[in-house]
Amino acid sequence: MKVLVPVKRVVDANVKVRVKADNSNVDTANLKMALNPFCEIAVEEAVRLKEAGVVTEIVVVTIGNKSAQEQLRTAMALGADRAIHVETDEELVPLSIAKLLLAVQQKEQAQLVVFGKQSIDGDNNQTGQMLAALADMPQATFASEVKVEDSNIVVTREIDGGLQTLKMALPAVVTVDLRLNEPRYASLPNIMKAKRKPLESLSIDDLGVTLKSHQTVLNVAPPAERQAGIMVSSVEELVEKLKNEAKVI
Amino acid sequence: MTILVLAEHDNAQLKADTAKVVAAASAIGGDIHVLVAGSQCNDVAQAAKSLAGVSKVLIADSAVYANQLAENTAKLILDIASDYSHILAAASSVGKDTLPRVAALLDVSQLSEVVAVQSEDTFVRPIYAGNALATVQSLDDKKVMTVRSSAFDAVAATGDAEVVALTQAISASTEFVSQTLTVSARPELGNAGIIVSGGRGMGSGENFAILEQLADKLGAAVGASRAAVDAGFVPNDLQVGQTGKIVAPDLYIAVGISGAIQHLAGMKDSKVIVAINKDPEAPIFQVADYGLEADLFDAVPALNNLI
C-alpha cells in the first residue's frame, strides 16, 4: 500500500512571531523554519506503518516556495521514500492546497493520505477534510490511534468529550493529533541518505489545476497586549485580592 | 440573506456553544435558521427554537446522524445549502470536522475560529497561535465559517421559532465503532466561569486531586497543559491551548504551568489570570493579573482552606 503525506514548512513552534509594521502580514523573514509539528507526527505514523509491513511506499508532498524542499529532505531523512514539490510563491488558502493535492493523489493513487490536523501558522484545520471531500473519501480527523485491517482502517479520534473510534474502507484520509506518536529524530546517516532520494518538482500548471481567488487579507494586527499584573506575597493576600479587588470568587 | 447555524448537541441536550454561534450570526444580520442533525434529538430542537433571533429550526432526525459523522452531516448541509448565504458552526471537534468538508463541496474557502464580525463578508480570526489577528474579506458567494464560541456571549432563550422536519437521511461509508466519554460532574471547560488548570509541576495524576478539591469548592472546571496530558496525569480532552480547548473564563488559575506560547493561545483572553509557580522567571507571570511565587503543594491546600 502506498501512503501520501502532505507536509508544510512553517515558522518554528518556539518562535514568537511579530506583525510587520505596515500590518500586511506577520514578519517571517530570517525566522527559524521547521516542519510543522503535526506533519512530523504524520510522517512518523507512515514510517511506523511501513515498519509494520502494512505500507510499501511513502510519498511526501509539499506546496510552497523553493526553500520548502528543505522540509521534504527532513521528511525523507525520517523515512519517506520520495518527495514531490509543487512549487509556487503564492500563499494559498487550504481549498486551493486541497485541489492541488487532489491532482497529486490522482497521479499517485495512494490508498491512504495522512495529514497533520492543522498547521501552526494558519491554524486553519481544514486541508485534510477538504481533500477528503474533493476526492469523495471517508475521513478520520484528530487521530490518536491508527490500525490498518486488510482493506479497512480503524481510527481512534480525539473529540471534545473524550475518544471516538471509527472504521472506514480504504482509500481514506486521516489527520493526526499530538497524541498519535512521538516522532523520531533523523540520524546523520539518514540525513545523508535523504539527499539521494528522488525529489520531483512540479508547477501548478503541470498539475493542470486552475485556482480561484477566495479571500483578501485586509489587515494583520497584533492582539491586545496583556499587561503583567502584580505579584502577591502570600495565599492570604491572593484570596483577599480575588474577593475584594477582582471580585471573581 | 439567510444564515444556517449547525447546532452543537449530544442528541439529548443543546450545548451552550450553539447560543454563542447564534450571537455571531446575529452580528452578521439576517434570518437565522438552526440545523439540528441527530438521532432522537427532539429535545434539542425544542431548546434551539427558544434561542433569541432564530426564526426556524430544521430537524433531521435519523439514526444516520446519531454520531454526527462529518461525511453524513456535510452531505445533508450541502443538500440545503442553496437557501443560505452563510453557514456557521462552533469551532468544536464536530464543527472543525464537518465544515471544511461542506466548504470544499461548495467550492468555497472556509474561515476558521472567527472571533469578530466586521460586516457580512469581513471577519477577524487569530493566526500563529493567537499572536496575530487577521482581518479577512471573503470573496466567495457563500461564507462558511467556524466560530470561536469563547469570543461571543450566548443569546438569551426568549424566542419561539417554528420547527421544520427534514426528511433526508444521507448515509456514508464511515462506520461508527465506539465512543468513550470522560464523565465529570464539574462544569464543561468551554462554559465554566472559573477554571483551575494544572501542568507538569503537578508531578503526577494523583496530585491532581488537590486541584479537583479546589475546583469543587469554586464550582470550577479542571483544565491542563499539554505536558500534564502527555505525562498521562489527565485525559486529553482537558487540554487547554492552541490544539486543545480555547477558553475565556472569568477566572483562570494556572498551577505549575510555565506558560508556553501554545498554552497561552488557549487561555489569554480570560478576564482574570492567577499563576501559582515556584519559578519566578516562568512566562506565565507576564500575563497573570495575580502571581504567587510558591510551591503549589503548599499554596493550593492553603488556598483551599481559605476559600
TrEMBL record, chain A:
Can you cite a GO biological process for this protein? carboxylic acid catabolic process
SMART domains noted in UniProt: ETF
Q: Which UniProt keywords apply?
A: Electron transport, Transport
Q: Which Gene3D superfamilies match?
A: HUPs
Cofactor dependence = AMP
Similarity-based family: Belongs to the ETF beta-subunit/FixA family.
What does the subunit section of this Swiss-Prot or TrEMBL entry state? Answer: Heterodimer of an alpha and a beta subunit.
Output this protein's name: Electron transfer flavoprotein subunit beta
UniProtKB/TrEMBL annotation, chain B:
Q: Which UniProt keywords apply?
A: Electron transport, FAD, Flavoprotein, Transport
Give cofactor(s), names only: FAD
Residue intervals of the Electron transfer flavoprotein alpha/beta-subunit N-terminal domain: 3-180
Q: InterPro entries given for it? A: DHS-like_NAD/FAD-binding_dom, ETF_a/b_N, ETF_a/FixB, ETF_alpha_N, ETF_asu_C, ETF_asu_C_CS, Rossmann-like_a/b/a_fold
Cofactor: how bound: Binds 1 FAD per dimer.
Instruction: List, alphabetically, the PANTHER family matched.
Output: ELECTRON TRANSFER FLAVOPROTEIN ALPHA, ELECTRON TRANSFER FLAVOPROTEIN SUBUNIT ALPHA, MITOCHONDRIAL
- The name on file for this protein is Electron transfer flavoprotein subunit alpha
What is the organism field in this record? Shewanella gaetbuli
